[in-house]
Amino acid sequence: MKVGIFETSEEASRVGAEQIISLLEKKPGATLGVATGSTPDGLYAYLRAAYKEGRFTLADSKAFALDEYVGIDPDHPEAYRNVLRRQLVGFTGLTEENLHTPNGQAADPDAAAAEYDQSIKDAGGVDLQILGIGADGHVGFNEPGISLASRTHRDALAPQTIRDNARFFDDNEAKVPRACLTQGIGTIMEARQLLLLAFGENKAEAVKQLVEGAISSRWPATILQAHPSVTVLVDEAAASKLELVDLYRARWDLD
Ligand code: F6R
User: Residue 191 domain-assigned?
Assistant: First the structure.
């Protein structure tokens, strides 16, 4: 795991976006896994600007969302498919048909989850998965206690996640969907590269556990320690509880 610590989230987002652009230079048409939430906003903005400058295109790429709320109106602006449309479709060359999101409307969520895993396999797997992290250590919506080998599945959102996401729903917890379809931890771990971003003090404990904690489903993101290619990009606030900062900076500077 490589940990990059930056003064600002803008700087970290730029570094993350450049990693994606250089992957696309080496492998045009690479498949991306895409996160929603606030964390990747800066990274997506940077990608949109770089696309405008003609530096890359996702025209030949597929993108697979990490998750989708179950039961949300498909026209709701916070349905993750709509969030990703606004962030990426058209503005990065990504086409509507190449944007894949779990079907949160499915009458049979288990079948929809299995189909989603299969569609990732059929696409040849994810080359680079963008991740945020929940304050409770979730990646995707794999909440504490989930199997670290889970496949795409339906899950309940943790109370902490409902509180955290109320800001997208008029600050009203009652409006936050209670369930989601999420890529499983096992699914996420099959991506060839993982790129996790985390900003702000409220992520500091989750980042500490992610980087320095024991692997445990209490903090699901800790399993990322077992992946051979993980880059973690954080600002100083999110890094504030890390013990071995000097080592991480030295390792980062080796490249
Ligand atoms: C989003 C997702 C979540 C978020 C996490 C952090 O697709 O799967 O794991 O990355 O909840 O959310 P923000 O970025 O809003 O703090």
Answer: yes
